[in-house]
Amino acid sequence: MTEKRAGMTIEQILERERAHEFNFEKLLDPYREGGTKDQPMPRTWGTVVRWLLDKHKFDIETVGAAILLICLEMKGGKTFEGDGSYGSMGHQMVHAIRNTCVQIRERNQAQAVFALMGKKIFGQVEELLAEQIRKQLRPWWKRLF
């Protein structure tokens, strides 16, 4: 990487780095058709986020992570074809984001359950060890009774 940068100016290096960044708006451009053919409504990231937050009650961290994952896939070449009707490509993209939100939420809930179970089991093991230590520390004449 440094060999390639050796003969480049700062402007060339910055331009090259900017080329690797991705623009969320450019990724959304092919999927802007929203609403219906009779009542078109341009699709924006704001409307997508609002729909996921208000209608499906996802938290903002889950929505942001899902959008980032889908955008990374789109940057890698994934496209959403739809069924050819008005706005169907964007509809398919938004539902892919929603499905990713569901997967993230399920994974987070499973991790929370396992963490709770782990705490409970750890607490029981801790109590068992404490009882064993108490028994061992009692004087020998008290252990007889």
Mean pLDDT: 85
Number of strands: 0
Helix content: 55-70%
Could you tell me the strand content as a percent range? under 5%
Throw out a few tags for this protein.
single chain, 145 residues, mainly alpha, 69% helix, elongated
Structural write-up:
By secondary structure, the protein is mainly α. It has helices spanning 2-5, 10-20, 24-28, 45-54, 60-75, 88-137, 140-143. It is elongated, with a radius of gyration of 27 Å.
How do the strands and helices of this protein lay out in sequence?
Layout (H helix, E strand, L loop, with lengths): L1 H4 L4 H11 L3 H5 L16 H10 L5 H16 L12 H50 L2 H4 L2
Helix pairs in contact: 5-6
Provide a short characterization of the protein structure.
This protein is mainly α. 69% of the residues lie in helices and 0% in strands.
